[in-house]
Amino acid sequence: MSEAYAARRDRLRERCTASGSATALISRPANVRYLAGVAPHGAVLLLGKTEDLLVYGGPPESPLDEGRPDEALRVHTLPSPGGDPAVAAADLAAAQGADSLAVEEHHLTVTRHRAIGSVAPRLRLGDLGAAVEQLRVIKDEEEISCLRIGSEIADQALSELLESILVGRTERHLALELERRLVDHGADGPAFTTSVGTGPNSGRRGHRPSDRRVEEGDFLSVCLGATYRGYRCEIGRTFVIGTSPADWQIELYDLVFASQRAGREALVPGAAYRDVDRAARQVLDSAGYADGLPPLTGHGVGLEIDEDPQLAPAAMGKLDACVPVTVEPGVHIPGRGGVRIDDTLVVRPEADGGPELLTITTKELLAL
Amino acid sequence: MSEAYAARRDRLRERCTASGSATALISRPANVRYLAGVAPHGAVLLLGKTEDLLVYGGPPESPLDEGRPDEALRVHTLPSPGGDPAVAAADLAAAQGADSLAVEEHHLTVTRHRAIGSVAPRLRLGDLGAAVEQLRVIKDEEEISCLRIGSEIADQALSELLESILVGRTERHLALELERRLVDHGADGPAFTTSVGTGPNSGRRGHRPSDRRVEEGDFLSVCLGATYRGYRCEIGRTFVIGTSPADWQIELYDLVFASQRAGREALVPGAAYRDVDRAARQVLDSAGYADGLPPLTGHGVGLEIDEDPQLAPAAMGKLDACVPVTVEPGVHIPGRGGVRIDDTLVVRPEADGGPELLTITTKELLAL
C-alpha cells in the first residue's frame, strides 16, 4: 500500500510541474492523508524539490497514531510545539532551493498565508487550487474496498436497530445507539453526526437528533455512516412506525423511492453530474415538490463525507468509473414529516454490471 | 438573555470604531454564536453601518435549530444555496454604504478573502484580528452557569462508569459509554472526543481510544467533557485497576497530584499565565520529568474547548476573575503509562473564596 502514496505524490508532482511550480505545500488534512497515508493533527506535506517531507508539531508523546508513512517520505517534527507546520515547511522548501511554492489557498487562512510569505520572502507563492481534490475523485480498488467494508458495518448497525423496540425512545438515543453499534462492528467511528428524525422531523436532511420520542404512526428517517480506515460512507432509510402506513405515507414513500431509483439508474460513466441530479429531481418536481428540495441529490464520498462531485443542477463535469457517490433525494413536508432514501454506490461500466450498490439494506417500506 | 448578545455586539462595535473600521464581518463559528446567540452552519455576522445582519445559506428546510437571534439582529438567508455567506455579507456591507470592513483573517481562507475583495472592490478590507476571542475570555455568570451544569453532567457520567465492571472492556467502548451517559444526563453532546487510555496508553494527552482492553494492574486515564448550551468543559482523572496500586504508580500519582494542586492554587486574578504554568510544571521538572512534558498545562474553555488563555511557558498575559480554565498536568512514561489529572475551574478573587472548582469528582487515587 505504501507505494500507492508515493505514486499519488508523483501524479500530483507531474501536475504541479506542468503548471509551473515544482514544489507544493498541502495543508488540508484529508489531502495530506491521501498523499502521505497518515495525517497527524496539524500536519502538512511538502512536495519538495529534493525530497518530500511530512511536517508536524504536536506533543512528543503522541506520534503517528495511524501508522508510519512510506519510505520515500521523510518525517520532520517541529522543535518547538507552538509553531505552524505550514510556515516551517515553507522555510524547508526555501532551504531546498525552491523558488516557487504552490499552496492550497482554499484551505490556508489569510493569516497563515501571510506568515508563509514572510518566513520565505523569496519564494513565489502560487495556488495549487483543488488539484489534490481532483486526484481524489476516482478511487482505486483499495479505497473502494474500505468504503465497502464501511457500508457493511453501517448496514449491520442499522439492521440491529430495527430489531429493537423503537416506540418511546428519543431521536438522540437512537442516534447514539447506532453510533455505538458502528464502533462495535469495527468502524473507526461515525462518518458524520448520525441523523435520526421522527414524525415532523422525518425526511429533513441533516436533522440534528432531538429529544422527541418515536410515536405510533410516525415516519422514522435515519441517516448514518461508518468511517473505515479513514473512508466515509453514508446510508439513509425511512421507516414507518406501527402496523400499517397511512395512504399519504405510502404515496410519499413511493415517490421518493422512484426518484432515488431514477438517480441510481442514471449513474453511468460519462453521465453529466447535472443529468444524474435531474433524473432524481424531476420525479419530485413533476409531483409538485419543486420548492424546498435540497440543493443537491448526491455527492462524492471518500476521505471526507462530502467530496466532489456534487450532483446538483449547476454542477459541471461528468462521472467516471470508480467514483463513489451518494444518491439521496428526499421530501420534507413542514409540520408533517417526510422521506429520504440514501445509498452509497460506485459508478461502474455497464459491462461490469452497472453501478455497484454498497449499502444493501432493503429499500422496501418497512412498518416497524 | 437576548440583550446580552446585543450588548456584546455593542462592545465589539466600540472596539472596531476605536480602531478605525465601523463595520466588521465575523465568520468564525464560535464567534458568530457568541455575538448572535445562534450559528447555523456557515453563518456569518455582519456588524453593519446601519444594522446588524446574520447571513447564511443552507437548505430552506433547516432553519435556526438553536432558536431565534435577538430582535436587534436581522436574518438574511441567501437566495441560492451554493453561495458564500461571507461574500454576500460583504456585498450587503457595501450596499449599506460602508467604506471599510474588518474581517477575521485568522479564519477566512485566502480564496474567500479574495472573493470578498472582488464582490466589493471599493470596500477597504482590514483585519479584525482576535477581537472577538478577546471579548470571550472573561465569562458572564450565565456562561459560567452553563459550564457548571456541563461539569456536573461530566462528573455524573464518570461516577456511573466507575460503578461498572471495567476489566476486559476496550478503551473504545468505555469512551462510547461515557459519551452516551453525557447525552443521557442532558448534554448537547461530548465537548471533544472522549479519551480513554489504559496500561501503556494511560496518561497520554489526547490519546485516541483503541481496542486495548483494561487489565488488572493498569493505570486507566479518562478525559471527557460535556457541551451544555454550547459551552464545553473538561475533566480528566486517572485510576488504578485492581486491589492495590504498585509503588511506582502511587509515586507517580502523588507527583502529578502535587503538580495539579500547585497549578490550581496559582489561579488568582492578576497571576501571569506563564506563572500558573510554571507552578504546575516545576513540580514535574524537579522530579526529573522535564522532557516530554506537554506544551501547556491548561487552557481556557467556553464555546470552544481550547480557548485563550493558554497556560504555557511562553504565554503573555494575566488572569482575570471569571475566566474558566483547565489545569491538566500529566506525565506519560513510554511503554509504561502515566497519570493525568484535569479540572475545569473559574478564577475568582480570594475574597470570594478563590478558584471555583467545577469538576468535583474526587482526585484521590481510586483502586477500581
TrEMBL record, chains A, B:
This is Aminopeptidase P family protein. Residues 146-348 form the Peptidase M24 domain. One of its GO terms (molecular function) is aminopeptidase activity. It comes from Streptomyces liliifuscus. Residues 192-201 have a biased composition (Polar residues). Residues 189-213 are annotated as: Disordered. Residues 8-138 form the Creatinase N-terminal domain. The lineage of its organism: Bacteria, Bacillati, Actinomycetota, Actinomycetes, Kitasatosporales. Pfam families: Creatinase_N (PF01321), Peptidase_M24 (PF00557). InterPro entries: Creatin/AminoP/Spt16_N, Creatinase/aminopeptidase-like, Creatinase_N, Pept_M24, Peptidase_M24B. Keywords: Aminopeptidase, Hydrolase, Protease.
